[in-house]
Amino acid sequence: MEAYKTWVRRNKDYVHSLESLANGLTWLLPERFSTSEIGPEAVTAILGIVTAINEHIIDTTPSERHPGSADPLSFPYGLCISALKDLETLVEVVAEQYYGDKKWNFIAVTEAIKVIVRLALFRNSGYKMLLHGGETPNVEKSSDDTGSQHRIGGFPRPGGHHHGAGLLQNNHGSNPWTIERRALSALSRFGESARMVSDPVWFQRIQQQHAIMVPPTSVIKRPTLSMILSEKGVNGALFVLGEILFITRPLIYVLFIRRYGIRSWIPWFLSLGVDFIGYGFLSHVTKSRMVEREQWFHLSASEKDEVKRRKLLWALYLMREPFFSKYTRQKLASTESLLEPVPLIGTLTSKLVELIIGAQTRYTYMSGS
Question: For the region Disordered, what residue ranges are annotated (predicted)?
């Protein structure tokens, strides 16, 4: 496995080209697969999983400056979620062919597994917003290495930059130390010198090389639920509840389809209501100015993009039953008949409508998760 990881990391451009070629060849599958959707979906799912694995290997490549930045022992939540999303359509197609209406039991199990993985990721990430359903890690970009090497826990390290200049500043009073701190610093330097004299020369060289090669690491305490609730108050609770609603909404939708059927309006309205409530909580905690400043939630650029992406996912409600059969399909048919006499545009419109209807029929519930 390590040899494969090394090969992928060294040939990532070649790997991406192979993946694009393989995805393009899926359109040329033999005609014998046309009678069943299982063959094409199985090939697509396998290619999707292989692509997700390769992307995970590339993304976890240790950097030169921080060779230990990729933690091989941590659970690959993003990879697991990507694999589940690639498998869920195959599960639906296989279950529909062999079990009929009982397919919703298998779809519900798949969605429940995704919910469990996402909730675990939400907890282990310190209750950060999930990006792309957890497929993309929500990691804040750190400051430049020059500044971080001379800071510990957000405070400047004593003598971290230009030791001689710092001593001159102390003597001239621009950055004064107390007599006790100067005495402790002198004792510390004396003890360090004494230890270096007592150590063998070869051991001193090993220590110096180790100090150069291994950068100082700072331990960042991961926020817990109790910390968020105590620091952010009601806004913290609303933020966590909104994220939980976003994570569990697809499972709620499938469970109510299983109970009332795909043609019922109850799952459709309930899913839309859960989406609106979750977005309302998030909008309140990020835009409210009626609370103390410490209780605001400041979204990063990637989190703001995620909020926009979630709002765009609302367009899927136009493609979900029963709204699609009642309204969207009729509008598509009228648009197709209106543009059909127009050369080229009519043909393109017909192909587009056929593609949309085929996708809606193929992915019956369109979780949008």
Answer: 137-156
- Whether 351 maps to a domain, the answer reads yes
Number of domains the chain contains: 1
Report the b/e string of 307-338 with b at 16+ CB within 10 A: eeebeeeeebbebbbebbeeebbeebeeebee
Residue 214 lies inside a defined structural domain of this protein: no
Which of 74, 38, 55, 58 shows the shortest CA–CA distance to 132?
Answer: 55
Model confidence, pTM: 0.70
* Alpha carbon of residue 81 to chain centroid: 9
Q: 67, 56 in Cβ contact below 8 A? A: no
Q: Please report the pLDDT score of residue 249 as a whole number.
A: 95
Residue 114 has pLDDT above 90, yes or no: yes
17 within some domain? no
- Range of the structural domain that residue 347 is part of: 320-368
The span from the CA of 138 to the CA of 245, in Å, is 18
Least confident of 55-59, 175-179, 306-310: 175-179
pLDDT score, position 2: 78
Quote the CA–CA distance of 101 and 132 in Å, as a whole number.
30
Length of the chain: 369
Can you give the three-state secondary structure of 42-105, one letter per residue? Answer: HHHHHHHHHHHHHHHHHHCCCCCCCCCCCCCCCCCHHHHHHHHHHHHHHHHHHHHHHHHHHHHH
Whether 19 is in a domain gets the answer: no
